[in-house]
């Protein structure tokens, strides 16, 4: 028997005959203003399909001549649905994207009709944003070649386009902005073509057929646009703020991508306006303005040319604007951009550290903060609660970045920033006394503020890698434990405190830095939080215990390494707490407890240590959860636990590993496979198959032709996945022979792997069936190799069989096999005939190799690989949908306008 | 209007308001912190307590062997515990007309005020306040009477001796006024003077003022009070809460527009958020039980315990504590639980009903009057025990302290905010038991009260001085004080405040027939005036204008009328004048009448016209005109008529 591996690739980019035949009637439907379109998305899908066809190199005009007629009809019918009109404009643009298409459309004067503004305005259709956006996007698609540019310029479209930049519809305005940027950037080579030829290397990419004419047209466009930018950048009154905002966005877009000639030209034109805008000090424009300045600054050459210096000056004045909050945002923007000029960076750092310095008491900036001319304004702003909290949060968010700036830039040693964040946390919890801190009027604004607490904890977490962090461990631990203990800490604050704690433990080279008192406090607080009323807190606590177990530290410098939970919590605390958490009423907590237990035990599994009574107890509790828990999360976690255990044992265990624990593990694995594959939750089933995969890997990885599933596709990542990041590397059998396959297969059958795979194969959840199918194919390729030399092995294999249950998946498999059988009724294979003797309910025994060959696994894989909506997404079904919908709507019973209008919120 | 402050304790207030001829006492809280200076009263003989050494003065000059005992470095009075009463010398308590009670915690001194002082007034309280207050008093009396102590220590109170004592005893104030607990008889007599009121019910006091309780959201039946006349409004805000677990939400809108707002009973634990504390309570409880220990919760038999039970009911399932027994031991446990049920059901928002019920019905919470009897046979450990008194000086809690104090597995969780837990524990030291302090105080915090005051906008705020500065131990927390404009008027024990009032009006009623007879005339657009002649009748602070009685018709008599018996002739009142005399026009008129030599002199209030020829002065002032003219009656009459020409007659 030969199975051919063929994959038929369905291309959406080629138009098949069936679609081509349907298209004219679809066009007819769409062009008929009396009939309605099924829904907006179908037009979008249609356009996507056309775009796909065009991108694949096909010509729409050639493939579907009916489109041309469609366009003319629609354009002349002002009663057309605006949605259809918009679609038509964009379709036209798509067709004119190539020079040939453009030429043909122009010859039939379609282009002039379609993009004729006056026509749309007179018809009163221009008011519909749908049409305006169609116009912009249509033109945007067209503008891919010089001819289109000429058309654009000659039609005087530049002014209307600039007007659309401040359109009332945000989508239209944004599209207009994109379009303006596209014109300037796409054709920018045109202007440089004749000049110095700097970009010679990129000549290939230049748009073809550059003529002097095009160059002149481009210059005109650049001139028009940059004059407009210069004129309109400064808001005339408050209402024009929107316009300035749009222009700034456009400028940022342009400056980031423009080549030197265009950039210089733009800068020359707008620098003065930018300067004026900076002095105007408009809060809402600060961030976009900063974006523009930074884009200009980073793109301007460091060759000391005048525009460059001017930009640097603007940047300087941006960093000395009066409004303290804006200043903070500007400084933060500068740092975020990874700006490298030390003068400005140093200034930004000072700006960002000043509010922290004011609140936590002057330590960061030295005593000369009075030199910061905006000190007064900052203090004033900080006295208002809202602006105080927002400013402090901006500062905190940037502290990790600040500590990474070069030493010359930083006004203080990085470790002082850690100290400041710790002080701030103390002030926030209300525990710090004012004597050592800064302005009390400001401090009261942050006391008890959850937002500041969270920001500060995040900052502290990230600061663990800053230079000198190690000296601060004890202080950081103290404040974090205090936060964990504080009855008023909300669940998120507690979660972040735990995260910070885990990160900072990694900083410890040895745990002697943490005093016994701190450890004791931590134990107490963790015990308390494990009993918290809020499940989120219990969950974070349990998670923390797991994370801690994953961190390895040495107890004292250079000494033996152990996991952090052992070292910090003394070992006697973690497992009892986690065992208790297995009984939690909240399923998430139970699931977290299970994965934390797995992390805690991984080390002892790897060492092959004998099981403790505790562990045996846990195992029986876990099996209970797998069979009885009503929630999916804990059951998933249980399967993951056993995966983790099995993996640790098989990849690490030395020969001396305890046999009692191995036998318990294998016993459990059998239970997990049978229960997991019968679970109602598809993820449990997928995890069960992952365990089956590990068993297959272990059994066959030494055999020729076995391709590990995990090599082919990465294991799915799950929130409660306990499998470590390292790749599966199982120990391999030594000295196995081909005959060994038979015994290995027998063992795998006995473990229940085959049953799990077969039941997965007929599962109604696609991911389950897919995974099972892949694994079965792998298995088939190992035990039923196609090469002739392996026939003897196949014969031997025929003796290994497995049981099919008379109901459920067994019945299903039997049915499939029966069908296969009747198809090949004439083929003589008596032994096989004996093996599956009908589907009459009893537990039948079938030969594994025969089953593998008879299940048409490859065909199944193909079906399963396609996404579940592939049928509904095909262009054909789209076209059919449009036709059906239209037919339904034109049914005599339905009066026009009576269709159901779906409210979209 | 005056406010006499008889208590300095911000949450156990006792103030007297003198307002419009009424004398109103606002609350009469009993400061029980004084009992911390005494040794605990054990229910069962305690060898440990009885063996405590007597305190000996270093130089041996004082011998108080019988009165003072020493425990872990602190000195305690070995006597029946005594309480610090509200000040009784500042004002004659027999003059008090009414006492308004805001909640059951603030009435514990009632028998001391109403009995043996000559008090003859009425006490107003809501029904839950009265009933639960009675329970708390009854419990207190039973706690004391159950363990009678023959000895009464008094020598230590001698000023000379007290000065030489160590620690807190030395600094205790007014120890001579401290009193032992009242008797049940006194309680009953005091409570018989209580008249029940419902929320928003208006009670007239002598026609002068109207008082009305408003829901304050703090505890069952708790109220704030509005005391108002027609033109003045005083709001008395005592323990109030915005937390939603309580039966009726706080009525804030009725507090609006008061002239004076007396603010007491804010949270005693401004830094301890009740939700956080409840969480802390539950997790510590679960932690102890899981480790096999017992939990002791010293508490009052009403109040916070209801919240604890409610919270625990939800918690025990999730914490797998389903099998742990919960005991509530108090002489009034049964009634307290019943009352909480009844009153919660009456309230509109009866969200607390099913939970407590369930905790009892499912046999998870068992209640007993005392550790003797049924309890001792059903007692199972580990368990959770709720019992009083939170001071740890008397009640069943003393027994559990002796029983469980030695084991580190057990935990005592303090939830009542009234006592310092370290002071409460002092006579039990050294103690192995774990101590957790989770004071739950649901009363308004500073943030909430600032918001409330912004909303209700009183003209003046009066509050205990403690609220005008940050707490002593946290002087940097400027967020934990009241900051108002104008600044609040602070008071302390024995302060007498003059409350500022802007308006001084009385409402006077006018009878319809009298009103009918009035003839108003418009003196300027929109303002009309009329003169009224009437008899002012005042009774019960209510003023009415009545028509002047007509002379009774003369009975027909054949006798000769006697002149003497004729009723006095009521003279028609002279018309009132209004308006101003314009100087220029008046001068012109004078001239027309031949008076030409007029010297005009400007004065502070108007002008003086000197008619030099006649040696006559005319003083034209804003509120009067005088003609000084000696011996020239015709001229005076002429001048008077000239002046009258410019004025309007009513």
From TrEMBL, chain B:
Which keywords are on file for this protein? Answer: Cytoplasm, Nucleus
Where is this protein chiefly located?
A: cytoplasm
Q: Which InterPro entries match?
A: Beta_Casp, Integrator_9su, IntS9-like_C, Metallo-B-lactamas, RibonucZ/Hydroxyglut_hydro
Region named Disordered: 540-562
List the record's Gene Ontology CC terms alphabetically.
cytoplasm; integrator complex
Q: Where is the Beta-Casp domain?
A: 305-425
Superkingdom of the organism of origin:
Eukaryota
> One GO BP annotation here?
snRNA 3'-end processing
Q: What is this protein called?
A: Integrator complex subunit 9
Native organism is Sander lucioperca (Pike-perch)
Q: Which gene encodes it?
A: ints9
